[in-house]
Design goal:
mainly alpha; elongated
Length: about 190
């Protein structure tokens, strides 16, 4: 929970007890951090592109036709490439109003159910995203603007990001199921 400006980076979850899950989690963490850095750069580039567009149009009366789609494409990448990183810190919004009221075993079952359902939803979303990517690639779909960039670009970022999110949720669920200490999973969830 955030209580204002936090200057120190948040601690990540404890490594899983299972060696295979721990190795996969570490590998995914490195990929997530690389995508986070790439997303930071893309966000700055988006701001530069939009600022250039405004300055160009206002001061030089030279409108650009590519800035909207380039910015939207970069924002799609930023949004979807960061989802697995946020999930690795359990940073997505969750309603925990009933958690303190439930016995520990019931709450553990509730958390497992939520993780399994989240993984199933994200897997379905990933599958549909990959089908959109495939259709855009095979059919050569582009946007309807004069710039007309190919649609496989945002669809591929959406599909890759959702696939990584699904993998992150599956790894966290496996870690919860294979951890020897039940308090370790609870502490990870609370962090």
């Amino acid at each position: 929970m955030s209580h204002g400006v936090e200057l120190e980076p948040g601690r990540g979850p404890a490594p899983p007890d299972n060696a295979i899950v721990a190795a996969a989690t570490a590998l995914l963490d490195r990929l997530n951090r690389a995508l986070l850095l790439l997303s930071m750069i893309a966000l700055v580039l988006t701001a530069i592109v939009l600022t250039y567009s405004v300055v160009s149009r206002y001061f030089f009366h030279a409108p650009t036709d590519w800035q909207d789609e380039a910015s939207v494409f970069m924002l799609v990448g930023v949004t979807f490439f960061c989802t697995a990183f946020v999930q690795s810190h359990r940073g997505h919004i969750g309603i925990e109003a009933v958690a303190p009221l439930l016995p520990r075993a019931v709450n553990a079952a509730r958390l497992l159910f939520v993780d399994v359902m989240s993984a199933a939803f994200c897997a379905f979303f990933s599958w549909k995203s990959w089908t959109l990517f495939h259709e855009a690639w095979v059919d050569g779909q582009t946007t309807s603007s004069t710039f007309a960039p190919p649609l496989w670009i945002p669809y591929s970022m959406m599909a890759a990001g959702m696939t990584l999110l699904t993998l992150q949720i599956v790894l966290q669920t496996l870690a919860r199921m294979t951890n020897k200490s039940p308090d370790k999973a609870t502490m990870e969830r609370a962090a």
